[in-house]
Design brief:
Layout: H1 6-36, H2 41-44, H3 52-58, H4 60-73, H5 89-94, H6 96-126, H7 129-132, H8 136-157, H9 165-169, H10 176-188, H11 192-218
Amino acid sequence: MPDITPEIIVRAFIWYVVFLFSTTCHEAAHALAAKLQGDDTAAKGGQVTLNPIPHIRREPYGMVLIPVISCLISGGNSLFGWASAPFDPDWERRHPRRSAIMAMAGPAANFTLMFLAAAGLHVGVHFQIFRTESWGPFVGQILFVFFALNLLLGVFNLVPAPPLDGSSAIMFFMNDTQARRYLDWLRGGNMGLIGLLIAILIFRYIYPPIESVVATLLLPGY
């Protein structure tokens, strides 16, 4: 673990605040998509909100403890955490395509934040905000963390392995009968831990080229 310097504390604070807001948007998008399609389970839990408190109450370890510890251990350069939004499994079985849309809503929120951060970086470069204003470098760092973290969250959650969103999103391309058979297999065993380990191993290889291409397209020369 590196020495905890003021610089590391500032970086860790930026990473954590961006993670907290981005993850809250991700889960709120799930909850809103489900509510609009007939499942108010998450809405009754107060999760159709950008207030992080209901999300923290549901996953205090994944939203606070583990992210803060992992961010400090990494020297304020990365973190690990998680969150979740409840849903009605009977609703999912009756409407597998609606469930797939709900699953895709979370990564869509992350990609939206990523594009907004990229736009903010372009505006800052164009008007030389990051060079001419005293607070410019700090704002630039925040926007870049927003870009990097939301790209990572969006892509990682689309990996089609349980418990990630991609494992449910692929039902959008199935008919109802195929989707229900798939759900019987997916929910029938303890696939979460195995799927997560497989996703992490795969992600280490597929993410760097994706990150390179997206950064080159959206932030050339930044």
